[in-house]
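Hi everyone,

Forwarding the result from last night's run.
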Amino acid sequence: KQWYQCRVALRPGVTKFVGLEEKNKDQIKRFIRDYYDATFIEKEPFVKGWNWGSVDFAGPLMVFHNDGKPLFEVPLPDVSTATVNKNEVTVEFHQDDDTDMSLVEMRFYVPNTTNDADDIPADNFHKSVMKYADVIKATGDVIVKFEQVLLQTPRGRYDVDMYPSFLRLHGKSYDYKIPYTTMIRMFLLPHNDQRSVYFVISTDPPIRQGQTRYPHLVIQFIKDDWSDLTLELDEETIATKYEGKLQKEMAGPTYETFSKVMKFVVGQKIFVPGNFVSSSGSQAIACSHKANSGFLYPLEKGFMYVVKPPVHIRFDEVSSVNFSRVASGVGQSRSFDLEIETNTGANYIFASIEKKEYSKLFDFLKSKKIRIQNTKGGDETFADDFGDGHSASDNEMPDHYLEKMKKEGEERDSEDSDESEDEDFVAGETPDTSPSSSSESEEGEEGEKKKKKKVLKETEVGKQRERKSSPKARKEPAGKKTKAQRKAERDPNKPKKPPTAYFLWLGVNRANIKDKNPGITVTEIAKKAGEMWRNLDADEKQEFEDKANKKEKSTDCDSALIPLL
């Protein structure tokens, strides 16, 4: 079944009637011919679903068509603003407060078909749109205007116009219309430098800039800036609508006058910091969030972080918080992280908070009865002294951060105690310096002793210790020869030390061990030989010990004859 649309072009604009049937078309056609003496033109729409074509501007109407058939039409008075970026033009529309869903943005790619720098098709398209665009639908006269106000989010300077029902931000590239009904919270937050103030407006739904959404507007005022205002309101409106809480003539610091007008025009409370005071005497904690530095404000009913990106977390949304110490290479950490987990599972990490803020923040969270969770998890309870004036009791919340620091120290001490000193070299126990004999000796004669594995922690302390122990880092006293020099001066005719009884026995039985254990490795041979040597009869051991003594005596005799040769 086919449906029709009837578009009637009037002098003020265009009126459309949709959902017409075949019989309605004929009736309307006769009616227009008989009473208006106008031509009834039938046009078939383009229904192939293509997203490219040509654009014609017929006064306040933009028609997008392909192959001479219209695809859609855009009434330009519904456009709130349009921006051009190279070959792309973004068209934004006014938000319709009477519907649940409405079109808010369209983007057009306009190819550059000319080489003339003064005649760019995208710029011409933008100018044609803005010629009939209703940049702002002003209902009523502006109450007051603040010029060139600095906004941190979205970034830039804007002229702020306050209307009876909405706030208008007019910038160099973007304009915003923010109805007062979408403003859910307002905050007035002092900067840590005591020279500026943040005024934050939370909106729902958030304002949009292309694909970016801004749920919070952050306005920054300088405390010393002064404003003299004249409100465009009559005395009757001030007395009836605003209950006499505003004055027609206002003067004072800009942030105070702006806050006062916003409070009574919007009709909402402005939240300010409560009793929390940091160690530096300010009401904010310097930290960073998502690699951007800013300030965290502990308020009476939640946290507010500014400036980028602004974050507001209510206490009733918080599931738990955790103090996480930042790992440091040397010494104790000078900062910590505050991790906040919400009931929905979202996590917010505020990093690089100075250590001196810890006790203040811990007391504040405890006073708000917020659960503090240990990073390592578990249902541990702590009964030790918490330090910083905190005492443990069954009804008092444990200081998990302090306990975790203690535990890490204990683990570090226990790891240091497990580290064994290098064993001294005992002369006469190693008969040869060849790889095979040295590897077998580790599990042979020395197999009766269980060597402790040396664990060197990869920390700065460990690296410094390693550098100090290296030959390059050591400085030998003047006139004293180094180990390498002493080794080079050894007598090449000096005989090697004789093998011990164990190695004499191993030389006889190594082949037998390999035959009985096919595929056995060198290390496993040494282990097996060590066990067999320990379980060997005393008489058999004595036979090899006698042979070792004879070899040792013959070596001593050879050494004594060397000077005589």
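Confidence is low (pLDDT under 50) at residues 375-397, 417-459, 560-565.

Cheers,
N.
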